[in-house]
Design a protein that fits this description.
The chain is an alpha+beta fold and about 650 residues long. Helix content is about 25%, strand content about 25%.
């Protein structure tokens, strides 16, 4: 039990009825105090909502919902709620006071529990949870901190602050409510919880009880949430080989990623827990509707008055021996653990008091820096959470949340979700520091500026001013119309590497990643140059060019010089693209046939067959060129000389 004499609530009389004696615990939404109900003269636990949350209607409604949800339940494994009201500016609710420890404290004290102890605790949890599910209530925040182990052996579920009617739409919107280590995959990914989400949390607690550790770990809460959403909970025996196969199966069934593969509700799981205990020949704490402990007469510790007794634990016997006969049922193994822990705690307090007297200065310094005004807190990363969930996470750290959040646009975080904090996540600040949430307004519209033809640096500045995130490396490509070093345009590159052009004036969103296209200038003109010179010109642009293919005759380009560069690519051409240089074989020379003495027709046919052009210079009509009377006297150039293929040969003829 934690107390604080500096707490202004201690000593107050709430609503003229509940006298606050000491502080028990402090959470993200409220602080729990030990108080005396002066009207009924009994000890009670009073849960008072933090004052700075009183103006938040959502927190207040959730706080009141806890009282209403728990009040609907009447079960020995559920903490009773007696009263609810408003005192000054804070809402409060009154619950039964259970001296003892939480399951979290038990695990911290003992580490892994035995299968028998685990089944004993799980049977009690699921029994109370079954009553809640039957009443149409989903707890949504099951965790070891909310399982109470009373000194007398009773086990109860408390803190229905996040409970919601199972018949209603149980979606939590974008909010991730509950403790991250016990959230079901569907609550992480879709914000939806039903009875099967509670079953998942029970399965995680079973794993923790059997192994002494949680199945998923991470430095940040979102890392743990990601594992819950995407990974399968391993069998407890992978961490503790002594765990029986039957309990492995029970945990894997309760923590199946698909809700359809889990027990439908706590009643179904309870039946299997009892059957598993029977198959392991394990005896649960007791039998009957109140499994863990039954008292027939008041049991009052010597140092605590009868006002600590819980109503409903009394009964009288009409049999032989009269009402004074007392019978105490067998205590559970879990009850013994809780009591042993309590005794160990009492001895620890005595030792602590002695140490404190010897080293008061050191103890004061430890308090100052550990829990007092000098305590330091590393601000949690709440990016992507709802403001309510983010605020609750920060409050659990002992930080205060600013009443008015800041806002900013963001491409990735949807509107209404938390974009960050001020100071930012990861910064170490004093406990009770005020942290302001930064809430996303969603993406901010913008348009693509005109960058074509602008120098690269100017184009980048234009895109930056428009709110785009420009890649450090531009894409270079050949462009005959844009000068080297100037922008061609803008593209967006998808996850598959596909490029999508963003034309000037197109609608877009600030924060969109884009890449700038920059011109390499035109392809180099290499016609008529040496191949080595041509290759160097291409390499200067990051392109490859090598001699290849078949050389060709060319009457204009000397042998060995480049005729042209070719490539199989369609373009646009970018660094790394390869080209082939086709070189010239020089002019194509052919020998002029000897045609002197032949008819004109014969001469023309022979020259044309040699792929020369023919011009006949004679006064002889064409219809007489092959009559044998017209004879070719010679050609220009002369027969036997070598001329470029296609050259026109002049033919001379007479009668």
């Amino acid at each position: 039990m934690s107390t604080s004499t500096s707490d202004p609530m201690i000593g107050r009389l709430i609503d003229g009825r509940y006298h606050v004696r000491s502080r028990i615990a402090r959470g993200g939404m409220a602080t729990v105090y030990l108080a005396t109900d002066q009207r009924l003269e009994r000890l009670v636990a009073v849960k008072i909502m933090h004052g700075h949350l009183a103006d938040d209607s959502q927190f207040t409604a959730r706080f009141i919902q806890e009282a209403r949800s728990a009040a609907r339940l009447a079960h020995p494994n559920v903490v009773n709620v007696f009263d609810q009201g408003q005192d000054a500016e804070s809402a409060y609710l009154v619950m039964e006071y259970l001296p003892g420890i939480t399951l979290r404290e038990l695990l911290q004290e003992y580490g892994a529990l035995t299968p028998q102890q685990t089944l004993d605790i799980v049977e009690a949890i699921v029994s109370g949870l079954s009553a809640a599910h039957k009443a149409g209530i989903v707890h949504r925040d099951l965790k070891p901190e909310n399982v109470l182990l009373a000194d007398d052996g009773r086990i109860k579920i408390g803190d229905f602050g996040l409970a919601r009617a199972a018949s209603a739409a149980t979606a939590a919107g974008a909010a991730l409510l509950g403790t991250i280590a016990y959230l079901s995959p569907e609550l992480v990914t879709r914000g939806i919880a039903d009875t099967r989400s509670d079953i998942y949390a029970v399965g995680i607690m079973m794993f923790e009880m059997l192994t002494g550790e949680q199945p998923f770990k991470g430095e940040q809460p979102m890392q743990i949430a990601f594992q819950h959403a995407n990974d399968t909970v391993p069998a407890p025996s992978t961490a503790n080989p002594s765990v029986p196969a039957e309990l492995d199966e029970l945990v894997l069934w309760a923590t199946a990623r698909d809700p359809e593969h889990r027990p439908a509700d706590a009643r179904v799981l309870l039946e299997q827990v009892v059957e598993t205990a029977r198959s392991l020949e394990t005896s649960l704490s007791a039998t009957g509707p109140q499994k863990t402990m039954v008292f027939t007469t008041p049991l009052v510790p010597p140092t605590i008055t009868a006002e600590t007794q819980v109503i409903g634990a009394l009964a009288t016997s009409g049999g032989a021996g009269g009402a004074g006969a007392a019978a105490l049922a067998s205590r559970s193994a879990t009850g013994e653990l809780a009591r042993a822990t309590g005794r160990r705690r009492k001895r620890g307090w005595i030792a602590f008091a002695l140490v404190l007297l010897i080293a008061l200065a050191a103890g004061g310094a430890g308090w100052w820096f550990g829990a007092g005004p000098g305590a330091q807190v590393t601000i949690a990363d709440v990016r992507g959470q709802s403001p309510d969930a983010a605020g609750a996470a920060l409050l659990e750290q002992g930080l205060l949340v600013g009443a008015e959040p800041m806002t900013a646009h963001d491409l990735e975080i949807p509107s209404g979700a938390v974009l960050g904090t001020d100071p930012p996540a990861g910064e170490i600040v004093p406990r009770d520091s005020t942290v302001t949430l930064v809430v996303s307004l969603g993406p901010e519209p913008t348009t693509v500026p005109a960058v074509a033809g602008a120098p690269e640096a100017d184009a980048r500045a234009l895109l930056d001013d428009a709110g785009f995130v420009v890649a450090d490396e531009s894409i270079r490509q050949v462009d005959a119309d844009i000068a080297q070093g100037s922008a061609i345009g803008v593209v967006s590159i998808g996850e598959d590497g596909a490029e999508t052009g963003l034309p000037e004036g197109a609608d877009s969103l600030k924060g969109t990643p884009v890449t700038l296209l920059v011109s390499l200038g035109p392809l180099p003109d290499v016609v008529g140059v040496e191949p080595a010179t041509a290759s160097a010109a291409f390499e200067a642009l990051g392109l490859a060019a090598t001699v290849g293919g078949d050389s060709e005759f060319n009457n204009d380009i000397a042998e060995g010089l480049v005729l042209r560069a070719v490539t199989a690519a369609d373009g646009p051409f970018r660094p790394g693209d390869a080209f082939t240089l086709i070189v010239s074989r020089g002019p194509d020379l052919v020998e002029v046939p000897w045609v002197a003495g032949s008819t004109i027709r014969q001469a023309v046919d022979a020259l044309q067959a040699a792929e020369f052009g023919v011009e006949v210079r004679t006064v002889i009509p064409e219809d007489q060129w092959d009559n044998g009377l017209a004879i070719v006297t010679g050609t220009d150039p002369d027969g036997g000389s070598f001329q470029i293929r296609g050259t026109t040969i002049v033919v001379f003829a007479i009668f």
